[in-house]
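FAQ: What does a multi-protein file look like?

Like this. Sequence, then tokens, then the next protein.
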Amino acid sequence: MTTSPVSPVPPAPRPRSLLRHRDFRRLWAGDAFGQLGAGLTGLVLPVYAVQHLHADEWQMGALTAAETAAFLLIGLPAGAWVDRMRRRQVLITADLVRAAVLAVVVALALSGQASMTLLYGAALALSAATVFFDVAHQSYVPGLVGLDRVSEGNAKLQATHSVAQVAAPALGGALLRVVAAPLLIAFTVLTYLVSAAWIGRIRHREEPPSRSARRPLRLEIAEGLGFVLRHRLLRRVVACTSIGNLFGAMGSAMTVLYAMRTLGLDERALGAVLSAGAIGGLVGALAAEPCARLLGQARVIPLAALAMAPAYALTPAAAAWADHLPAQATLAAGGAVFSFFVVVYNIAQVSFRQRLCPPALLGRMNASVRFLVWGTLPVGALTGGWLGATAGVVPTLWVAVTGTALAALPVALSPLMRMRDLPTGRTHPEPVP
């Protein structure tokens, strides 16, 4: 008896790069301009508050809190609302709202009517628009590129974010030496308008769920929050990120005051420090996938979390070492290493969430996670402002470093350290109890 030879199975075709995905390129371009605008705004508003409005520690804490307050106030219902809408249209509308808010700031600043109250109001409005943009953005990517490509898509988008973090502070710091802050804010208005235009060119269309399938908003919110809290691994990741953001916001509220008043850096030096530090984030975006392949998708999360605190410690150490090392160099080195591990951690955990969650639940899941992990930001910023005013800026930064170390414990003491691969929604359709 003879047997026919078995034909060799041809190798699976290598997937095409997302660089050849037309709609992803348009989303990527729009995101690049939006990130540039956000980076410039994040620099110029606090610098304007410190230099021109003479903000103190408490006021800087309040401003930082206002920039993220919407994640605490409307973070949960935003996810349910986004799941009822076309996400592409949400992205465009959020960009237009941010452009309009900053245009009002420019007009009032140029007319001499700027105040901290104005900046608080603008920061609150910007944070509300950012809530909808971020939730819609993270929920839009999987449907646009497919679940098998979300890691590549997130890495490319995170690389753009890191490039913006490098370019925006350096560009903004240099421009603030030669142009007034309101004119630089006017430029950010343009970046958001360009972002909206690029996203508007995306041809991919999605159909929102039928109105007849909608349930009460409270039930939809509870479904998204329950998905996050019932999954044993996702719950650990959310705890780590939430605690880290709480203490990170305490330090962030003091960063500009620390650099400009304690260390004596000017606008250009501050911009250069932030840009040099952000280079680490760019390297992290490029290294995220190789790190996950080398260490494992699961193990890379706790390892990156554990590495953050030693790098963050270089920020307050810059003041103590100033007699031996240039403070600007210490700040830049610490920021670079810290950003590297933050980006590696974020790409791994965001990709995990996107692969794990059913598509119909993505908006609510992402909003629930943002509520839990970003809702701590305004609390941390207000606490940092109070602590900075009572105990001092440098002690507040050391408290932030200690909190960052504690934040790693939920993932470092979890099964993630013993795992290599992470579960997906296709292999684990139900949350693990």
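And here is the next protein:
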Amino acid sequence: MKFQQHLSQKQKQVQKLAMTQQLQQSIQILQYNTEDLLLYIEAKSLENPLIDIKIDTHYSDYPTSNSSQASFINEENNYLNQIPDSQTSLFEFLIDQVHLNYRDTYLRRLVLYLVEFVDLNGYLKLDLDEAVEKTGASAIQMLDALTLLQQLDPAGVGARNIQECLMLQTERDDQAPTLAYIVLEEDFENLVHRKWQAIAKKFAIDLSEVQLIFDYIQTLSPSPGRIFESTTGLYIRPDLTLRIKDDEFTVISNKKGMPTINFQQGYFERMKKIEDQEVQEYIKEKKLEFEWLEKTIAQRGDTILQVGMEIVRRQKDFFIRPERPLKPMILKEVSEALDIHESTVSRAVNGKYIETSFGVFELRSFFTSGLVTGNETGEIVSTDSVKKQLQELVANEDKAKPFSDQKLADLLKDQEVDISRRTVAKYRDLLGIPASSKRKRYD
């Protein structure tokens, strides 16, 4: 049997989506929030002389400028540059206190040495024996230096563990319960593990007094140094605005602080007069880039607006009813209604916000899964509603006899929400609600 190889030519047409660089950038632009979009456009304007950026300065708190270049060149008129950088690190704060409060002695030098080993949480990460060995100081001198360090602000700084941190804060608080410091010092383990009967018996006090001490300790900071890392001045610029009048819902694109781009026609005309092939190709390329960017930004705004309108249409009860109920809704439902891909909806809602008369909400927050109720109709309720019911049950329980997870599941079943004990435990953890043993109080 002879092997024969037959060669032939066939024409086959296949439709596929090529992920070009421009398509990738379009997808990325849709994912950008307002701040990221502005940074992207500013970067593009530095590369393309035909792009001019304008921002609605009447609403925006951005620097007043007619172009992106002005915001970089005219630094004196940029009022944001006139705001001093007042942020101080924990290390700098401690060093300043040492120089202001203590005289220039050998002991102060030891305190400055210890400051170098204080971490961002305010804890001393150096063993005193090791410090003695490295500095040549005596154990008493090093202990004195540690005492001086622990007298600095914030209260609790220089502690070597959580117990010492809480004791330092309690010691400097005149409003602390009488026995709080002693309980922390002598019976810390029992307090952590909520063995309150043992504490009450040891110190001959009532359980209500132990409860008072525990409540007070919860007001203390386990990381006193973290206050120097708090972020301030974070603002949200909503992409959409919802207006409700006479039961009519109107969603509009929010132009406040949004960048717009304009074509530098004058510059383009001047460059066209230059008889140089490379220059002509350059301005042609930059013009096409501007047109693409203008179209992509407009498309981004239209997509976010369409998705926002569909969300409002499906979640009307949230915007008109005082309890703000959410209906079960997933990305697929919105994508099918708008005939776009689920990933497009996901990018359009992440980091995008809608402004209402009662607050600003991220579009992503309106998506929630559902649970089938236990009634005959098989109605679907959102997990958000179930969580709210769970919170209400815990809020109204007897704190001396808090509900177990199984009891909560039974109570929810009575309200026609059939979920398991494990699901209750899962939702409780998500809501930050402790277990029943840790919710028990002795007031």
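Q: Is there any per-entry metadata?
A: Some entries carry free-text notes. For the entry above: The first strand starts at residue 51 and ends at 55.
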